[in-house]
Amino acid sequence: MELKAQFEQAAADSKSLSEKPSNEVLLQLYSLYKQGSMGDVNTDPPSNPFDFVNKAKYEAWAGLKGKPQQDAMQEYINLVNKLKG
Q: Does residue 14 surpass a pLDDT of 90?
């Protein structure tokens, strides 16, 4: 199976994990998914200083700037597989 197909399957699998991951792992999943599917962050940071959730998501994704999309896809796949057990 090619990488993109594995990535899409992992994204589908991530929605049916037996246990909800910690917030830290959820941010990692989010940032790897965004980097893998879209590349480097391409939006402005949230302007509302009290929007902690979106700020955390933005910062997690921005922290992966420069990581090749294929690497992010593979890391995402590996993480989802690890969470599946």
A: yes
Task: Classify 82 as helix, strand or coil.
Answer: helix
Q: Is the pLDDT of residue 1 over 90?
A: no
Q: How many domains does the chain have?
A: 1
Using CA atoms, how far residue 16 sits from 12, 13, 19, 84, in Å, is 7, 6, 9, 9
How do residues 31-84 score in pLDDT, each as one tens digit? Answer: 999 999 999 999 999 999 899 999 999 999 999 999 999 999 999 999 999 999
CATH of the domain at 44: 1.20.80.10
Q: How far apart are CA 14 and CA 19, in angstroms?
A: 10
- Its domain, for residue 13, covers 3-84
